[in-house]
Every structure is written in C-alpha cells, then in structure tokens.
Amino acid sequence: MLFRSCNINIAEISRLAASWQADDADARQQKLAAIREVFQATGPIPTMKRLLAHRTGNDDWAHLRPPLTGVAKTAITDLEAQLAALDYDPGEFYERLA
C-alpha cells in the first residue's frame, strides 16, 4: 500500500516490499498502517512538515499554503511519542534535509 507518508517511511516500505512473503510481513504491514494513521490523524502533510521542522530545527518546514493548516508546536511531543511507540525509524530522511 502506498500512502502520502511513504516519503518519510521509505526504509520500512522498502524492507516490506523486498520480503513481502516473509512470516512477519503481515505484522510489518500493520505497523506501516499504524504509522500512516498517526500522520493522518492531524493531516499527512501538516504532520510531516511539523516533524521536519522539529527534527531539523528549521521552522520554515512547518509553513503551509492555504487551504492547509499547520500542526501546533505543542503537538510535537505527542506525535513523537506515538511514533516512538511504533518504533518509527525514518532513516536518514531528516538528516538529508537539515
């Protein structure tokens, strides 16, 4: 399944695609779906951009154009906690954008 958050979860998606017949493929697909749900809860693009701003230290990443509205800075702690609980690892994505 492809989704808007694939750009910052490409490592997990690639691993699943490479071994989609493995015994743990269903569990890994469920993990990907749970991560997607975190992003969807506050809007995929605003959430990705808020996380980028937070992890790179560059608030310019949080800027959006109408009709999108941003995710509050105060929500970042909850977002990070939810993603950590899912063992979310974006790989080098954030470092390349810093």
**Helix/strand order:** HHHHH
Residue share in helix:
55-70%
Structural class: mainly alpha
Q: What is the number of E strands?
A: 0
**Span from first to last CA?**
28 Å
C-alpha-based Rg, rounded? 14 Å
Q: In percent, how much strand structure appears in the residues?
A: under 5%
Dominant shape: elongated
Write the layout of secondary structure elements.
Elements: H1 10-18, H2 25-41, H3 44-56, H4 76-85, H5 93-97
What does this structure look like?
With 98 residues, the chain is mostly helical. The protein has helices spanning 10-18, 25-41, 44-56, 76-85, 93-97. Helix 2 packs across helix 3 (44-56). The model has no long low-confidence stretch (mean pLDDT 84).
Index terms:
single chain; 98 residues; mainly alpha; 55% helix
Entry summary:
The chain contains five helices and no strands. The protein has helices spanning 10-18, 25-41, 44-56, 76-85, 93-97.
